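User: What would this chain look like folded?
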Amino acid sequence: MVQLFDDEELHRLYAKGSMEIIQSPSVFSFSLDAILLAHFARVPKGKNRRILDLCSGNGVIPLFISNRTDAHITGLEVQERLVSMARRSVEYNHLTEQIHIVHGDLRKRYDQLIQGSFDMVTCNPPYFKTKAKNELNENDYLRIARHEVLCTLEDVIKACKLYVKPGGRVVLVYRPDRLVELLSLLSLHRLEPKQIQFIYPRIGKDANMVLVEAVRDGKQGVRILDSLIIYNDDQTYTKEAEGIINGRE
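Assistant: Here's the prediction, encoded as structure tokens.
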């Protein structure tokens, strides 16, 4: 059994599968970008490997990628309520030996997080620059998750560079309209972009997400992967998207 508070509920990570996660519509619920990031990441294998997930929220990325590796996974999250949700989900799924959730701010340093020690760093960062107060979401949890209230994009990139090993991978999901800024900051901090994939809601629409992999101190040379289309014209998932969402790809 797992203890749930307020409007928390257990939800399956995939439509088919036994792993479940604690969610709350008023606090945090993971969305498609988390599924796509976890699928896109080329996850290192082996118990001696280490993975760090920044802006970890309710621990969804560590839970997703734990299915694909026996590496040790650490999630770093600044919001105490989300840390509690993530830790309870990890315990509920019997993954406490593999996944460790740290309560902290990515702009600070912690004894549990050793500089330059992670084979891969993932992040689903806040997408939007800080607006005027009257334009921000009134929900504190959603405001911090979506807007650069507690950290900027450059703060995220600096943290990625701080923790990833030389030759290690950094994997992010972001908005296409800020892609130039993202690529510039990655290069500035010696994280060389290596793979990019654009996500389109449907044919004929602009891309609304982009997945980027970079390598610390990597050589120049980037691959643009085939685009991923999420919906058919009849609003059903495309075959490829359905496979990813249901955990078959």
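The domain at 9-245 is CATH 3.40.50.150 (Rossmann fold). If you want, I can go into more detail on any region.
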